[in-house]
Design brief:
Largest sheet: 2 strands, antiparallel
Structural class: mainly alpha
CATH class of the largest domain: Mainly Alpha
CATH superfamily of the largest domain: Photosynthetic Reaction Center, subunit C, domain 2
Number of helices: 12
Radius of gyration: 24 Å
Order of helices and strands: HEEHHHHHHHHHHH
Helix content: 25-40%
Strand content: under 5%
């Protein structure tokens, strides 16, 4: 009897240990950012915050370069976007970009070492367009990035390809397996927090402009014609946003009424603009580059890598914990740095 009891307790203890592996050990921190009783509290694990610190550290910025002197377009050949800044500023930015995007390869990741003016490398063509995209974000999307802005490092963090990008999923056609058309569901993916939600909620919302809101305005069916399936796509996007920023739903929503804008923190408006900014970048800057990339850099459906919330945020509610890195590079905060529309149109 004693042997049975010991074995039972051993298995019970093992079961408890396995059960607790899915839990986070205390202590946890919480921050209230809304009225009491609304549940608007963010809960943080200090150990996870500490683990993210290194990835969100801001690299050393080279000393500011003089703005006077000959222009970059006068000194260097084939400068199509940054020709209006000083050659000193141009050199400083190029050195910085090499450390942000290609610290191992250096300048030759984008440039032909025999002729830096040559455009034969696709990476140079892409980099030129990404500079324009960065300027566009800083100049035209202040409703989302405010005066903090972005640089190449915000997304790349020392990697040729940002670690957080997405491709369209190859949807399983009806009849190809015994479950039929799964609509991208029940295939746990990191993109939706390993849930059973549709694993590509980005194509309809961050490339297309499908309606994200699924909440009705009345209690009767006539006030809401959205289906549960449509709601699952929305929940997939919201799950991605939550995990990308390292926050829960109450960071943007008032739990009294998720559908109402009344009583919401300002973060909800910031997120609203962010969704539209990401859609704009994917449509205007990334999708048009599809033919520029080699086949091995495309996704399984032949599409180019695209951005979503995680590309910049990478687990924190403000990229790089809110460091105003772009202020050290004013040439990335304006789209009027000697840009030549005629030359840019060639690529």
């Amino acid at each position: 009897m004693k042997a049975f009891s010991f074995k039972f307790l051993s298995w019970l203890s093992l079961g408890v240990v396995l059960l607790l592996t899915g839990c986070e050990r205390p202590p946890m921190d919480s921050v209230q950012h809304g009225f009491r009783g609304t549940g608007m509290v963010e809960i943080y694990n200090p150990r996870l915050v500490e683990a993210k610190a290194e990835n969100n550290a801001v690299p050393f910025a080279l000393p500011a370069a003089p703005t006077d002197g000959p222009r970059a377009g006068q000194v260097y050949k084939n400068v199509q976007v940054l020709g209006g800044i000083s050659s000193a500023q141009f050199t400083r930015l190029m050195v910085s970009m090499a450390s942000w995007v290609a610290p191992k390869e250096g300048c030759i990741y984008c440039h032909n070492p025999v002729n830096f003016a040559d455009d034969s490398k696709y990476t140079k063509v892409v980099a030129r367009r990404m500079i324009q995209m960065t300027q566009h974000i800083n100049a035209d999307w202040s409703n989302h990035v405010a005066d903090t802005g972005v640089t190449c490092y915000t997304c790349h963090r020392g990697n040729n390809i940002p670690q957080q990008v997405w491709f369209k999923r190859d949807a399983t056609p009806p009849g190809s397996n015994f479950m039929g058309d799964k609509s991208g569901q029940n295939e746990p993916a990191a993109s939706v927090g390993l849930s059973s939600l549709p694993n590509d909620p980005f194509t309809p919302f961050l490339l297309g402009a499908d309606t994200i809101r699924v909440n009705g305005t009345t209690a009767l069916p006539s006030g809401n014609r959205h289906s549960i399936k449509q709601a699952e796509w929305t929940y997939g996007l919201m799950t991605h946003m939550s995990s990308s920023l390292g926050v829960n739903c109450t960071y943007c929503h008032n739990t009294r009424s998720f559908s109402s804008w009344e009583g919401n923190p300002p973060q909800r408006a910031t997120a609203w603009y962010g969704i539209r900014m990401v859609r704009d970048l994917n449509l205007q800057y990334l999708e048009p580059l599809t033919s520029t990339f080699p086949h091995e850099r495309l996704g399984e459906t032949g599409d180019v890598a695209k951005v979503f919330c995680a590309t910049c945020h990478q687990g924190v509610y403000k990229p790089l914990n809110g460091a105003k890195m772009a202020q050290d590079f004013p040439e990335l905060k304006s789209v009027t740095s000697g840009q030549s529309d005629t030359k840019v149109a060639k690529r």
